Amino acid sequence: MLNMSTPVRRASLIVAAALAAAAVVQQLLVIAGFGGWLPGWQPWPYLLAAVPAFLFGGPRWASTDRSLPGQRVVAGVRRIPVWMGVAGVMVIATAVWAVLQAREPYIGHEEAVYANKARSWVSGAPDAGWGVYRPVGLPAVGYVALTAHNSVGALRAVALILVLFTLGVTYFIAARWTTPRRAVVVVLVLLSGLGFLRRVPEYLNDIGSTGLLLLVVFLITRAQERAESRALLAIPFVVVPAFYFRYGIAGNLLAICVAALLAYGPRAWSMQWRNIAIAGALIALGLVPHFVYAVRATGSPLGVVSWATSQANRAYFGDGLVYYLSIFPYRLAGDLGAVVMSAGIIAAAVAMRRRSRIRSPKVHGGPEDRRRAFLGTASVLIIVALGLTSHGEPRFVYVPVVLLTVLGVQALAEYSGRWSATVLTGVAAFAALSVLGTAQVVGQGAMRGPHLLSESTVPVARELSAPGPCLVVSGYEPEMGWYSGCDAVTYAEYREAEVPADVKVQFVLFERGRLQPGPSALKELVGTRKETTRTIPTEGSLGRATVVSLD
């Protein structure tokens, strides 16, 4: 029987139940549109606070003979085919994507960089904002979309395809590391997190590259867990497209390889040296076009990757790591995601501790412990590697989020014992509720700032369209280029550029803009050329725009 003899434990359970109820009520209020009272529409971590109180109040709850309420509901849920659960999650993801399109119909800053490149391949339009350090994979997919339909909607449809691909990969690997039903829970928890859902509607490469990296992780585990497996030979066909999709995966891959070496040991990998050599050769062969391009553009085969790393907006060395530690795990994955990821960290730590106490891999857990140690170590090393080499953003660390979520769902199922079905049904239900709540947080909170900014940049950009060659100089060059159809550069880039005389140059200065010169610096840029100045009022956060056109 559950020991409720002490008042302290009884009070702890009451507190845990109250906090859990508050978490549910909070999500319902956010869904109903009453999240404005929260700072930035960000819900409080009631559920994360409830877990330690619950564990303190009932440490032996998993072994009790008492039954939990809602057993009939759980039994009904278990009768639903797994494929229907997977399809349901995909439908929810698609619906959220569609709803959020209305919240942010304008293409954003980072999106516009890749959109401009894709459009340049379709129509020869300028690729405003593009840099040598940018990967070409996403524009290549965008090229196909724009060929079918030249619109922002076509590019955002690419985003949906990438989201569904990564959710599908997440289900695939989780189903093989846990069970198919637990894998559905993993996907729901992932989708409910603010860090992930925030980027679902956007045309970016982070979510798509995450799916490819997850396949790499899966193939590594399969190579060690299946006798005479040739899974390593499939890795080049995932790594190469992943690299062209996002150069930043190099840090992820390095961390994953180090984690695999630590978790499985040099001896285990030396037995597969032929497959490793073949895979390495195929990867090198696939990267030959990139190396040729890098040499031509920078003079070095590694010049593009080095350039990409140098573009990191770091305030100081390691500020990305400080950022990840400050948002981990709650602001990264949401209230429920924080609980699940914390359980995943504990599960990985326990597995690593068990393995450190034994010499034979056949003792206590074997392949399961090695895999958990690998996934946990890879998650930590990826966060550290990216935190030290770049500024921090939640979209950069989706792979650790997924891996720890898989470990966490499995850990919750094992810890809850015979109540695992009930516990995971509750987790899935709260995750589904959180998806709707997080969608409101994204639409009403996270997207509000970018939308207000677009209310300034978009109408001004459309006013600047010209029939001939034109150049817009602004601190918002990618989106200004997309909506004006002109080439666009920053003021710093304009100072170094040689602009042909037949190009119409237009300087844009917003009332509350960024990266723009003062009056004296602007006069220096204009020089002796004739100028025409006009003001364009906007309803956005940047205020009115002053446009100086050079005649």
UniProtKB/TrEMBL annotation:
Topology with respect to the bilayer: Multi-pass membrane protein
Chief place where the protein resides: membrane
Presence of the UniProt keyword Transcription in the record: no
Superkingdom of source: Bacteria
Keyword list, A-Z: Cell membrane, Glycosyltransferase, Membrane, Transferase, Transmembrane, Transmembrane helix
InterPro entries xref list: LipidA_mod_glycosyltrf_83
Transmembrane segments: 43-62, 82-100, 153-174, 180-197, 243-264, 276-295, 332-352, 373-390, 396-413, 420-442
Subcellular location: Cell membrane
Protein known as: Glycosyltransferase
Organism: Streptomyces blastmyceticus
